[in-house]
Specification:
This protein is mainly α. The protein has helices at residues 6-18, 23-28, 37-49, 70-85, 90-99, 105-118; strands at residues 21-22, 53-58, 61-66. The protein has two domains: 6-66, Arc Repressor Mutant, subunit A; 70-118. Helix content is 61%, strand content 12%. A hairpin with a 2-residue loop joins strand 2 (53-58) and strand 3. It is elongated, with a radius of gyration of 19 Å.
Length: 119
């Protein structure tokens, strides 16, 4: 599975939300910085070439839908990020968020309970 660009991820998030959509419907989901229709169409076709999206043909137009779920992509992305930036250590991930004050003591206690309940 090839890595996606930021713009491709943005478009995939729209397709995951809509489930099935024509290029025009995807375009309507952009609030700021709307890409040109042809640019968006090209990016979606690139997503199809990368194996993230498929389409149904309706005459000369196509309705696109994701074939990679958000959960599968998230798992692959997180694993890659943890391997690359945290030396494959989940402890380092949690420590990073604690040091950055992005996770509270109560949230950490919740995580510990989740781990303990799994045993």
């Amino acid at each position: 599975m090839q890595k996606l660009t930021n713009k491709e991820e943005e478009i995939m998030n729209i397709l995951w939300k809509l489930e099935r959509a024509f290029v025009k419907e995807v375009l309507n989901e952009f609030e700021n910085g709307k890409p040109h229709y042809n640019t968006l169409s090209t990016i979606i076709r690139n997503l199809e070439e990368k194996g993230y999206v498929a389409h149904e043909a309706f005459g000369k137009t196509h309705r696109y839908y994701p074939i990679v779920t958000k959960e599968v992509y998230r798992k692959r992305f997180m694993n890659r990020a943890i391997d690359t930036y945290f030396n494959s250590s989940y402890k380092n991930v949690v420590s990073f968020f604690a040091k950055e004050e992005k996770i509270s003591v109560d949230e950490l206690k919740e995580i510990i309970k989740l781990i303990e309940n799994k045993k």
